[in-house]
Structures
1.
Amino acid sequence: MTADEFVRQLGAENDALLARLAPDDTLKPEVEGALNVPNLLKVALKNEIEATEIAARWLVATPEVDVKLALARQVGDEARHYGLIASRLRELGFDPDAVNPLAQGYGPLFQFLDSLTTTVERVAAGQFTREAIAVVKNRQFIEFCERAGDRGTATLYRDVIEPDERHHHDLGRRLLLRLATTAESQDAARAAARRTLALAEELQARALATAGIHHAPGC
Ligand SMILES: [Fe+2]
Ligand SMILES: [Fe+2]
């Protein structure tokens, strides 16, 4: 199929799977105890530093100049998100410098992304799919913040962070249109996207089981 048809199909497949990450009435956790905005923002710090670093590693390791430049912009955006979230934590009375988000090492999604070697797989997994997940998770997190009465954090996500993540997803779409032109590259891209979604779903199930977290923001 053409790259255009492929990207449309992959987007539809992703959306169908992403609906499973959307809040489910039967799974809606009780929002109490440690499940609060500051603790979720600490999860966000980890996601943002991992997103910064994976884009930086790929920037160095990817030969295509247009992809390098897209990744360079993403490195800057994700690092800026980290700084904005750290500032918000400080406003809420927490010292972000006391948190080392990488103290437990890198997560399984980071390790999977880091293992990808072709540009088409990186763009399909890291930008087109991971950033679509981020958009869904951030929308859930904004609702969570509003229910918790935290309009400052909700506004930061709605007005600043979410539009960037949407831009990263759109960059992924544009690059895929150029890169996913053969059956072989389309198969590789689809497999990388599916694994990314499966990992996101596993991670969410684990977070829900261990910490009752259902609204952690993405990046
Ligand atoms: Fe992003
Ligand atoms: Fe981000």
2.
Amino acid sequence: MITRRFLCGCLAGALPFAKTVVQAQSLECAVFTPDRQKATAPDEAITRLKVGNERFTAGKSINCDLMAQVRETANNQSPFAAIVGCIDSRVPPELVFDQRIGVNTDIIGSLEYSTKVASAKTIVILGHNFCGAIKSAVDDVKLGNITALLQNFQPALATLDNGDGHRDSHNDRLVQKVAEANARLTAASLTQRSPIIKELVDAKQLTIAAAMHDITTGKVTWLS
Ligand SMILES: [Zn+2]
């Protein structure tokens, strides 16, 4: 249920004679270069994602020439963020954060690649409400390979207590609590499971954040 995506964002610079709007758009559409990536602090990477989500929820996503970005990233990528999210069709991170080209798959190994090799500045664990996988885990569904997959949610399920009410996927508040706990615990586990990621975080070259995407509004809320 988890996909990973690198977000190859955009280069700020100066185009002295361009009109302001056109300038802003063309700069947002420029892919990250290694120099720009190097100059981007982890906090700035998070800010880019926040601002992008604000554009998305305001209906002001930027139209870029995606094929131009394909050409510009064909031989090189300099992503500023790696997003770990649900494969759910309602949560495509490039759209939610109003960012563009750059996709990859597989978990910790990919995150080590995206941060240590490709130098992404932040990892975002992005959960969402009304998640089918979380609901299935809450209901303890047994079905094919899904059974093993749902084992991954056991630590989040362990955060439930009597005050959360009946453990049932129709209990929206309980499902939300498990989803948020899963995002937080996954984010916290990365430095324990990967010495490479821990080293980057300790050196302040990388931040790890957990966030929740509301699929009814498109808004992303940051948990940490
Ligand atoms: Zn989901």
3.
Amino acid sequence: MRPIENIFQAICSHLLPSACIVCGVFQRHTLCLDCLIQLESDQLSNYECCPQCGLTLEVSELTEKRCGECITNSPYFDETHCLDRYEGRLQSALHLLKYQRRLACAHGLVSAWNQLMTQSLKNLRADFLMPVPLSPEKLCSRGFNQSWELARRIDCDKDIHKNPHILRRHHHAQQQAKENRASRQIAIQDMFYINPQFQGQLESATVIVFDDVMTSGATLNEIARVLKDNGASHVTNWVLLRTLYPASRS
Ligand SMILES: [Zn+2]
Ligand SMILES: [Zn+2]
């Protein structure tokens, strides 16, 4: 988070009560202590998950420590770290941020990330942290990229360059929500590209891609493919909320 914004938040939290983004109770923080404790006790990262795609492992997959899908059809990305499941406590706050432009929710969501994820990720080194981009048309209609609003406030190693301009997205009118993984993968092909200004800067780079929601993984897989085609050596996904039952498994 930028220093001035940090100071402003600190002053506000002392002077003005905040509504908790989960339970709505007014107190000093954007995420109240009770909700933080509940979130921590049940967060997705407490469970045995596939380190590559973030899905919870089934009993038969525990010995391999990777899910069957990643073994048979390995994605381009190398690691995935998710804060919580999509169906959990943070979904409504994320919807308020995305669909009702409640930017205050970004503070609460990042507060959850910084308190629950930073410790386990503090030794992770990377050259870049970039959000999944929106198309220019989508960015214009929403007014902001929710993944960047979250990623730019995350506490991480100072040497990780946060940059929302490297990765770009073409406009695509088709809705993704109800498609299965195979058709989403086809629909999303060639949707992302590297900003020519940054061409060459990804050679041997390690990259973290931040997404607010990971569903089938098709979007993040296509992004990782583009990043690796442009020289990236390692791609890690940081995901706020993970859908645990993608269409490919149902
Ligand atoms: Zn609360
Ligand atoms: Zn997996």
